[in-house]
Write a structure and sequence with these properties.
Layout lengths: L1 E6 L4 H12 L4 E8 L3 H11 L3 E4 L5 H7 L6 E3 L4 H6 L5 E4 L7 H9 L3 E4 L2 H18 L2 E4 L2 H9 L8 E8 L15 H4 L9 H9 L1 H13 L7 E5 L5 E7 L4 E5 L5 H9 L31 H11 L3 H17 L7 H13 L7 H25 L3
Parallel strand pairs: 1-2, 1-5, 2-3, 3-4, 5-6, 6-7, 8-9
Antiparallel strand pairs: 8-10, 10-11
Helix pairs in contact: 2-3, 5-6, 6-10, 6-13, 9-13, 10-12, 12-13, 13-14, 13-15, 14-15
This protein binds NADP nicotinamide-adenine-dinucleotide phosphate.
Length: 387
């Protein structure tokens, strides 16, 4: 029985993680659950799983949560104490399914406490990858990726030695606009319709801009300690091949499954064990098509901007991430056009400049500065563009 904290338990990944817990009774004890605003769902989860602790980051729903939980079983803690919860000696695994930079503090706290971190919150790794790797190495923490592409690469890497790896190949569904001529007039409602995955709003927009693939290039470079020029992206609309590793002898190892995030979540929670599952299987008696296309890099500047961020290193990936978060928020709020997301990220990187990212403080400062600059650029576009 492993003791587990799920950060972001009310989101898409969080709810899928709880489904895996339900399917494997007796394997996990829930120590903590957290959310941002969804007090009703967090309260329902608390009543079902009886975690020792719950926390809500946005204070608006605190009274709803406090009234709905069983105080004899579950204690309501402050959002500021979530890092302490992740470091508690009773905790074995922290599953971080928070969206955005907001997840970084907890990832760092868990790694410093030597925990296994099942990491969906890719923005942590993007903003602070080298620092998180050092924290894990120094304190005995471990990062097991949940992102389906990185889970695939993690599994494919077991086929050879690190020195035998030639390239990592990240697959991308291409999102809803891969074949679209131009990005004029795209509404948030259209961009929120992903062809193969059902996910939270931020990552769905990131998938439509391919900023998600940009974030994943950076995430892979840091998770697997490989230069970004040996990480390539290929469009694979069926989302069946989750990513591949090409070895120096020319063999390419791929991981395939039907698109279901419960698989990489389960893999991370049980790693290094593989457990029997009845979730998703292929029926090879029926036709199965797997298509691959080169990514349209000129149309989706996100990929080049991500490569630039890794090349520049230091705070640059954190700036890339912060600018994208602000741009996505402005787009979802109907304040800017879809195509402006690329402009905002590029212009924020130009205006922010370079800097070291050796401490959490430097990364938090870079995130604040980049968010501020990106917010201003978004406001400029809001004034000049007609949506
Ligand atoms: N969804 C997928 O299939 C998928 C696949 C690969 C990777 N990921 C990554 O997994 C992470 C979560 O994605 P998601 O799709 O599950 O997102 P989501 O559905 O939007 O859920 C996000 C979760 O984080 C909580 N949260 C939001 N802002 C927060 C804050 N400032 N502080 C603390 N908690 C906060 C939310 O609480 P409320 O519900 O109260 O707002 C919710 O529980 C992202 O980094 C994403 O890139 C997701």
């Amino acid at each position: 029985m492993k003791n587990l904290v799920i950060l972001g338990s009310t989101g898409s990944i969080g709810r899928n993680a709880l489904d895996i817990i339900d399917r494997n009774p007796g394997r996990f004890r829930i120590i903590g659950l957290t959310a941002n605003r969804n007090a009703e769902l967090l309260a329902a989860q608390a009543r079902k799983y009886n975690p020792s602790y719950v926390a809500l980051c946005d204070r608006t729903g605190l009274s709803i949560l406090a009234e709905s939980i069983n105080p004899a079983k579950t204690k309501l803690i402050d959002a500021e104490d979530v890092s302490k919860l992740c470091s508690d000696s009773s905790v074995d695994i922290v599953l971080n399914a928070v969206v955005g930079f907001a997840g970084l503090k907890a990832t760092a706290a868990a790694l410093i406490a030597g925990k296994k971190v099942a990491l969906a919150n890719k923005e942590s790794m993007v903003a602070a990858g080298p620092l998180l790797n050092r924290m894990a190495a120094t304190h005995g923490g471990e990062i097991i990726p949940i992102d389906s592409e990185h889970s695939a690469i993690f599994q494919c890497l077991a086929s050879g030695k690190r020195t035998e790896v030639a390239r990592l190949i990240l697959t991308s569904s291409g999102g809803p606009f891969f074949r679209r001529e131009n990005f004029d007039g795209i509404t948030p409602e259209e961009a929120l319709k992903h062809p193969t995955w059902n996910m939270g709003p931020k990552i769905t927009i990131d998938s439509a801009t391919l900023m998600n693939k940009g974030l994943e290039i950076i995430e892979a470079a840091y998770l697997f300690d490989i230069p970004a020029d040996r990480i390539e992206v290929v469009i694979h609309p069926q989302s069946v091949v989750h990513s591949m590793v090409e070895f120096i002898d020319g063999s390419t190892i791929a991981q395939l499954s039907k698109p279901d995030m419960r698989l990489p979540i389960q893999y991370a929670l049980f790693y290094p064990e593989r457990i029997k599952q009845d979730l998703v299987q292929f029926d090879f008696s029926k036709e199965l098509r797997l298509d691959f296309y080169p990514p349209p890099k000129d149309k989706f500047r996100s990929l080049e901007l991500a490569y630039r961020a890794v090349r520049e290193a230091g705070i640059s990936p954190a700036v890339f991430n912060a600018a994208n978060e602000q741009a996505v928020k402005a787009f979802l709020d109907h304040k800017i056009q879809f195509k402006r997301i690329f402009d905002i990220v590029e212009e924020t990187m130009n205006r922010c400049g370079l800097g070291d990212a050796d401490t959490l403080e430097q990364i938090f400062t870079a995130n604040s500065k980049a968010s501020h600059i990106a917010g201003n650029i978004a406001a400029e576009f809001e004034n000049t563009d007609k949506f």
